[in-house]
Model the fold of this input.
Amino acid sequence: MSDNKSLENLVTQVRRDILRMVHKVNSGHPGGSLGCAEFLVTLYNDIMKLNDGFSMDGKEEDVFFLSNGHISPVIYSVLARRGYFPVDELNTFRLLDSRLQGHPTTHEGLPGIRIASGSLGQGMSVAIGTALTKKLNGDQHIVYSLHGDGELQEGQIWEAAMYASGNNVDNYIATVDYNKKQIDGATDDVLPLGSLSAKFEAFGWEVLEIEEGNNIQAIKDGMAAAKAKTGKGKPVVVLLHTEMGNGVDFMMNTHAWHGKAPNDEQLESALAQNPETLGDY
Amino acid sequence: MKKYTNTGNKDTRSGFGDGLTELGKTNPNVVALCADLTGSLKMNAFKDNHPERFFQIGIAEANMIGIAAGMTIGGKIPFTGTFANFSTGRVYDQIRQSVAYSDKNVKICASHAGITLGEDGATHQILEDIGLMKMLPGMTVINTCDYNQTKAATLAIAEHHGPVYLRFGRPKVANFTPEDQTFEIGKAVQLTEGTDVTIVATGHLVWEAVQAAETLEAAGISAEVINIHTIKPLDEEAILASVAKTGCVVTAEEHNFLGGLGESVSRTLALHRPTPQEFVATNDTFGESGTPAQLMEKYGLNAASIVKAVNKVMIRK
Done:
């Protein structure tokens, strides 16, 4: 367990990492990355039971899959800050010959990543597969996944959702970055998602909502409640109400920063709002 | 003179099913997934023997590929089963990202490949799957020719780490390769020795090639038949050694000439030994309903077509 203050410090540093990574290569996805910083920091440093070091098989530990791979800056920063690989390597994001590809992949052997993601809609199936293997292996640990809300427009998600409840995959917690925005605009304008909770309930899932998805204590409480629902015959989904671009005033309340890097002045302003805590890479 | 004897017609998919049944007993890490075609894929015995290791996915092939990829994490060896069309074209992106690019140890086992699927028609008769799969970096592509070879291949791919596409078919065809064969991935099998022409065949066309070789022999033409069960990685050495002797080649496959075995052979020859080649394959077309034999004849995929192609290529030497 980690106290909220140290998690908050880590979040601030992760925000700086995200902003500096995308600024350097003038590409990448800061909006969703910032929106999920509190969640992923808390997941990796408070919620998940993890072994030291990295093994692809992830036996006897919790396993996480990032299905919306475009928010790679945040997962790279969280993994590096958790010690999976040197923090300095964040300098190589999206550069030639880097292990930190535009979207996460196993191809270059980056510790902490177990599946490629980027083409959307595939991570829930993968997570279910690993959850099934955990059951076969008698491994009591939990599988987590994160999905964008726009990603739920992909049909494969609902194939997977139907499978998970139909087959009692109850060692699995899916989470949704419910910021109600996607590249082209508001999800309501692009393709309305309707009631996500009603949809998942109709598919036979336990549904929980974390109304303050950028609040560390709310995340802790919500995920503890989610964990308490595992092992009871149903898959669990958590709808995280987040703010895209959280922590940088001009990146919030808009979808404009979904896939756009800040320029020099914007970076300066964004970093000023998030003073260095643990040391920049 | 008969060089190969048909020990009785059997379907290649039963070779897969029986291989899987054996793997169920010998390899506790093997798991099987099926998208509502358990009977067609001959997976019932595995399902009955090991219900805890059999996963009925329903009609959701994309989900099946993703689940298979996820199951490798923790050490399982998933074998997915559905028709070739639904094993490849329908799930290309899932295979590309979650299996091939992620280097997952998934065995994609595809029945009812090619035109011999028959009466169901073109919606189900994929003639592009070898091309789709061989273009994926890291993917091993295997197309077996009979029951015995399919069973041996099924056992062999469980021992090979990495993604594999195993392609086989629906109809009962000659079973003529040895029952006790060792299947070596990437290693061609020379079936007849010859000096005038090389016939490189895969899948159901291998038996047709052997038949063609007998007809040719009666006409005084000595054909060397090579059974290429592995299209990727291709046994270039075996092909080059043979054409060094014969000076011409016919490739034969139940697949579009675009993207198939023939093109892989052409590339090898273009790089190392430019050689006249004729293609027995479908001619950039979809299939249609009919019996397997009718379709093989109409689309020029039988022994007679191979003989014609040999006569044509010999003139070009």
